[in-house]
Amino acid sequence: MRRLRGIVYVLALIPVQAAHADLSAHAIAMNCLNCHARGRTESAALPTLAGLNAAEIERALLEFKYDKRPATLMPRLAKAYSDAELAAVAAYLARH
Ligand code: HEC
């Protein structure tokens, strides 16, 4: 019975996981826009993402993640996400 409850619990989580995948690029992007909000003054310390295409954003994120681009904050953030999540958020940000 205990084991059955465990299986039911796991099955119940599957649709939640699928919905989460759809929402994650949007959810991650909301974090990014706390700092990289449109219309904010561009500065070297806090660059705007407007004008970068998806490939450029993705490349920058992967370089931050794998310590190939010197930076202060982004390497820590980029390491929190999978490469697929970084690609998805780059595509999302380039579209919005
Ligand atoms: C707490 C503020 C903050 C958040 C949140 C943040 N960034 Fe950044 N971002 C920075 C800073 C500061 C830099 C400059 C590089 C550095 O020092 O880390 C930067 C640089 C970048 C660059 C390079 C831009 C260029 O023209 O060189 C990209 C791309 C980028 N961020 C994307 C993102 C994405 C995507 C997210 C969300 C996953 C994100 N950032 C979240 C502060 C932030």
TrEMBL record:
<keyword id="KW-0349">Heme</keyword>
<dbReference type="GO" id="GO:0046872">
    <property type="term" value="F:metal ion binding"/>
</dbReference>
<dbReference type="GO" id="GO:0020037">
    <property type="term" value="F:heme binding"/>
</dbReference>
<feature type="domain" description="Cytochrome c">
    <location>
        <begin position="19"/>
        <end position="96"/>
    </location>
</feature>
<dbReference type="InterPro" id="IPR036909">
    <property type="entry name" value="Cyt_c-like_dom_sf"/>
</dbReference>
<keyword id="KW-0732">Signal</keyword>
<protein>
    <recommendedName>
        <fullName>Cytochrome c domain-containing protein</fullName>
    </recommendedName>
</protein>
<dbReference type="GO" id="GO:0009055">
    <property type="term" value="F:electron transfer activity"/>
</dbReference>
<dbReference type="Pfam" id="PF13442">
    <property type="entry name" value="Cytochrome_CBB3"/>
</dbReference>
<feature type="signal peptide">
    <location>
        <begin position="1"/>
        <end position="21"/>
    </location>
</feature>
<dbReference type="InterPro" id="IPR009056">
    <property type="entry name" value="Cyt_c-like_dom"/>
</dbReference>
<keyword id="KW-0479">Metal-binding</keyword>
<keyword id="KW-0408">Iron</keyword>
